[in-house]
Every structure is written in C-alpha cells, then in structure tokens.
Amino acid sequence: MTNSHSVQLSVLTEKGKAYAYRVSDSQGRPVNCQVWDREFRKSYHQGIEKLSVTGLSPEQTYYLQVIDKNRGTVLDERVFKSLKLSSRSNIRFALVSCASDFFVTHARVMWDHLFAQKPDFIFLVGDAVYADFRCPTTEKDIWRRYCETRSRLKHFRQPRLIPMIATWDDHDYGLNNTCKNFEFKKSSQRAFDVFFGSKDTDGYRKSMGVGSQLSAFGQRFFFLDDRYFRDQAGAGMMWGQEQQDQLFERICESSKPAWLFNGSQFFGNYIKQESFIKDFGKNFTDVLTRLRKCQAPVVFGSGDVHFSEVIGVEPKYLGYKTYEYTSSAIHSLNFPLKLLYRNPRREAFTWHHNFLIIDSTVQNNGLKIKTKSINARNKIAFSHEAVVKRS
After folding, report:
1. What is the pTM assigned to this prediction?
2. What are the percentages of helix, strand and coil residues in the chain, rounded to 5?
3. Are 236 and 280 in contact (CB under 8 A)?
4. Which among 300, 123, 304 is positioned nearest to 214, based on CA atoms?
5. Residues 173-223: pLDDT tens digits?
6. Which residues pair with 258 in a beta bridge?
7. Which of 9, 75, 150, 180 is 20 to 30 Å apart from 62, CA to CA?
8. Is 107:367 a contact under the CB 8 Å cutoff?
9. Sign for the pseudo-dihedral over CA of 125, 128, 133, 138
C-alpha cells in the first residue's frame, strides 16, 4: 500500500542473514524506515520482512537499499514514489490474475509489458501464487510455493516499484476449487497477509479474511475474500454472512463509485466453471438486490477463468447498465477454443495470455472506463470503452 506520506514494502529474505534497510530521497537525505512485521517457517530457508517507510512527499523520488548488515554491502536497490490519493479523479490500474511461475517463457515478458504501461496500482485478483501446484499442499508446501513465486517472477524484480493490492482465489488459498473447510486456511491466510497484505493507513483498511478496501481518486475499491468463508457450491454463501454485511455497511457509507473485486467471476454462469451466479444463485440475487438500493454505482472485476472478457450487465439487475471486467491469465494455462466460451453478454474477449489496463475516471458521480488488454507480444488484444452511471 502507498499513499502520499507512506509506503509499505515486503522483502524476501534468507534465513540466518542479518539485513539493514536504508531509504533516501533524490537529494540523499535519509528517510524513516522500520521493520514492522516478519515471518519465517522452520521448514524453509526464506522468509519475509515487512517495512514501513514514512515522512514521504509525492514530489520526491525515493531509493531503497537492502544491506547485508554484517558486511555492509548493498544486496538490492529499488526506486519508488509516494502517491497522493486525492490529487485527481482518475486512476490507471492493471488488473491481473493467474500468474503461474511454471510458465517461464511468458513470465519473463509479461511483467515488463505491464510495468511499461505505468499504472498507478496493480490489482491482483487471485492466483498470484499456485501454492497447490505439483505438491500435496501442506503448510510447508504453501510457504515454500509463496517463496518460490516471489523468487522467480519478474513482477518482484522490477527496478521501479508500483503499489499493489491483492486478494486471493483457490490456488493461492491452497487447494483447487476449495472453500471454508480447507484444513490449512489459517496458516494460508497468514502467508498471504505477510506476502501481500498491508496494515491500515490513510486510504486503506483491512476487511474480513484477506479482503481490503482502497479509497483513492474519488473511487472505492473493495477486494473480497471468496475462499475463507465460502460454502460448498449450492445453497450457501460466497463471502459468508459477516463479510457480506461488512461490505454493505461500508459501501453504503458513501455514494462514490465502487469497484467490487472477487477471485471467481460474478456473472460467469454460461460456462461450467465456478462463479457467484452459478454456484450461489440465491445469495447472488440477494447481493444484487442490496446493491441496487445503494447510492453508489458499482462495477465488477474478477479473474480465474484463464481468458479475459468484458461482460455487459443489463439494467434489470442494478437499475443501470454496468460491467464485469475479467482478467486472466497473465501466464498460466490458456485454451484456444473460443467456441467453448460463448457468452451473450460479452462485449470484448481474448484467450491469449494477457492483462488488463483500466483507466477509470469519475464523471458526474459515475465512471468513464477505458480498457485495453495487452498480450505477450505487447499488442492490444482488445479495447473497450464504457460509462457507468446510476439513472
């Protein structure tokens, strides 16, 4: 998380090594930097140290140095800036899901393409880590896979840092298509929080599970936890009663436009994969009924399905036309069988490896949204423009 005066950082470290951290501005002046959390597991040689950097100014460029405390040598360097969240009414964010580190070729190029787009934020909406891939999924495996992913992906090796907010889906939760009955859920949640989470600060507050809320640029972004409280598919609930009630309490605090992000698709009932409408039809109807009564216009975002699309959501659901933006996969399995994915609501689509770049601008208490899908050749796979406004 980043705002105008502070930045939070997660650093992958080696067990047994002593680290020091130095942050300075472009004039070489030191900036306050403290370790506020750390985690190691006995079963693995790597862990995380979480840093809090404060006293920043959006006009400055800052430099982080990771130092071998015993030798005094610099092990790594990164560049970053703070970000004034109230400075304007538009945001550019990258929407990303399904980042399997086993897809080495695409993993080498996709993050370079993404960072070249210079988004204000990166939003990870599930499967940023394939914790259950090629292993039996124990607590040891989950921690190891989180560390391996952070070691391998160029996302985490970019010289210039971009703020990131994340929620999970089944693979980073720990088991394919699983729900609240997963036996290692508490340990898995701790791993996700350590690697991807932030503590409450201006513009950001934690929610239930690994969920969170970002308030920035005249908009609100709700990241839902679709695994920790999720019932088995059928007559239950996607988010659980307490998380759902918290969402509506917060979304009704203001009429500012709101984005809802979920690992599973919302309106994906046309394919035989997980989605809110398919697996929890009654619960989804109840959620839409309550959203219809909110003063805030709502837009949906999701991942999971290994293709990207823009779905037009008819006014009969919320009283105004809105959209679901699905981004998947940046580098994971993809299926070149377009006929399998016929969707009468679809307005844009690609099955190639890709990510979405979304420019969202507040316009008369609604949103003007411009979207482009960037593929592995660094070309635009599709583009789409929309306006979402309560009637």
Report:
1. 0.97
2. 20, 35, 45
3. yes
4. 123
5. 999 999 999 999 999 999 999 999 999 999 999 999 999 999 999 999 999
6. 220, 298
7. 150
8. no
9. negative
